[in-house]
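Students often ask what a 'structure token' actually looks like in practice. Rather than answer in the abstract, let us consider Beta-lactamase family protein, a protein of 384 residues. Its sequence is given first.
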Amino acid sequence: MTTQAVQGTVAEGYEAVREEFAAFVATERPDYEGQLCAYVHGRRVVDLWAGQEAGPDALYGVFSSTKGAAHLVVALLVQDGTLELDRRVTYYWPEFAAEGKGQLTLRELLAHRAGLIGTDTGFSLAELADDRQIAERLADQRPFWRPGTAFGYHALVIGALTGEVVRRATGRTLQEVYEERVRAPHGLDFHLGLPAVHEPRFRPTQPMEPSPKQQALLDALPQGPHTLAAIAFNRHTEAATDLELLPNDPVVRAKGPASAGGVASARGLAGLYAAATSELDGKAPLLKEDTVAEFGQIHAAGYDLVARGHKSYTLGFQATADTWHPFLGAGAFGHSGAAGSQGFADPRSGLAYGYTRRRFAFPGGAAPENGRLVRAVHRAALGR
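Now compare that with the structural description of the same chain:
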């Protein structure tokens, strides 16, 4: 049990959110650190944090929540007409055609249907930090299922694949386009490539410390070294990736690989989705309503070959209502991160949500507390 005090502010009508966050924090370890932020129709209504070293400006590794920032860039370029969802990937990236991948469209790639979850021999840590190297390796890789016939989570590579399409179409990296069109204009504390000046604000991820019962559940999971899950998470090589500590590597933070290398605060996560779907700080939403509808539409739902269970994906995002929070509106989209972070937009209620935590949560993905926190924020947003 912790005696950590919850700090920060909530708008009138959101007092129950603070109470819910405080109730959760009271059950956590004494060293808990986390942040919670939410906007409704572009107005910040929740801005809370807990932890002795935490604060609103602390930055955390957000793992796969990075994919939300990356694919907001893709959505913008589709909206501009620079990218076309139903063009083949090879239109932009001819080398991608190797090993039977030539018919795959950008739409299918974004929906995790490429079957290109990794390579036969795996990646080094240096390669995982560099989207260009990942893309170069994957161009020659034979897919692990026939492209377009099924789907599975491209955990550590989807941002490199879509990022290469962005680079070929624009001549600039996905990270450069994100900085210019998304992060800098809104001053978002969500970085794909952390500038050295912000390094002192980074709080290194702490590894999961499961209870004996939780460890038994983890041990019971299929752990074959050559499964699709092992390949997707780069666990099938001698230098297997320690996912828990990935953002603690300074090269990963500096380069900001678009699948899992982002660094953010909860303000940054929530602000990203607020900027995407609402007027924020006097600026028009980044995405038009038609683009929000397109990118929030489910494109893959059912059995995920990598996750080995039911998952739903839109275009580059998770279908947040189907995968995580069924009480949200249809078309809610966002992404969670392995250590427990989550960010999403629920366009029907105007809600934009962000949550970060320092210690890797059990069992990975959106931390369990997001369920109660999101529900509390959503109820307040609806005036219930």
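One point worth highlighting: The first strand starts at residue 6 and ends at 10. Ask yourself how you might have guessed this from the sequence alone, and why that guess would often be unreliable.
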